[in-house]
Amino acid sequence: MAQQPNTRSEMSAAESDRYLRFTLNGELYALNIFNVTEILEHRQLTPVPMMPDFIRGVINLRGRVVPVIDLAIRFGRGVTAIARRTCIIIVRIPNPSAAEASADDGEPANEGTQDIGILVDVVNKVVRLAPDEIEPAPAFGAGIRADYISGMAKRDDDFVIVLDVSRVLSISDMVSLQSATTDPVAAEAAARSARTS
């Protein structure tokens, strides 16, 4: 078995040209593999009241509450239909409010991150994209906000939209996500209350 890199920085260097390709509403997207921690089969989501509509719910991932967003809703493309190959991609992104808190409290740097699930139609494969294969994000024409896109890559006679995962969620959205996940008991109680009312 190959030895795994010991630090996130070593992994960053090793994975900088590797991207996880997935399909959403018939279009190809990719995320840098550095942000991806795992891929899960779709599972039951617990809805949380008072959250933005693109947050479909939360899952319990080994004792941690992880919010799951629907990229189709986030991009204004309807709702992702749950099917046999629907997946949840778990990504780790910077959490500005947690990073500020950890700086004040002296907590470890990894406390400044947030795990988020991204609901997609199907995960295709990991592909290598050299920097010269990725063109700058277009100002218009991709169908989603330009600041969500870090670039466009041509693959298999089609274009792959490379997402900037840290921008797909805004800072205000991160605050909402944090409030939903910092108190899992309250979030679960709110979800139970919503189901019974």
What is the strand content? 35-45%
Number of strands: 11
CATH topology: OB fold (Dihydrolipoamide Acetyltransferase, E2P)
Structural class: alpha+beta
**Which shape, going by the Cα principal axes?**
globular
Taking strands numbered 1, 2, ... along the chain, how are they ordered across the largest sheet? Answer: 8-1-2-11-10-9
Pfam families: CheW (PF01584)
Protein name: Chemotaxis protein CheW
Domain CheW-like: 16-174
InterPro entries: CheW (IPR039315), CheW-like_dom_sf (IPR036061), CheW-lke_dom (IPR002545)
Structure description:
The protein has 197 residues and is of the alpha+beta class. It has a single domain (16-196), classed as OB fold (Dihydrolipoamide Acetyltransferase, E2P). The chain has helices at residues 8-15, 71-74, 96-105, 165-168, 171-181, 184-196; strands spanning 18-24, 27-32, 36-41, 55-61, 64-70, 87-94, 113-120, 122-128, 134-135, 149-155, 158-163. The strands form two sheets. The chain has a six-stranded mixed sheet. The chain has a five-stranded mixed sheet with strand order 3-6-7-5-4. A hairpin with a 2-residue loop joins strand 1 (18-24) and strand 2. It is globular. Residues 1-14, 99-109 and 193-197 have low confidence and may be disordered. InterPro entries: CheW, CheW-like_dom_sf, CheW-lke_dom. Residues 16-174 form the CheW-like domain. This is Chemotaxis protein CheW.
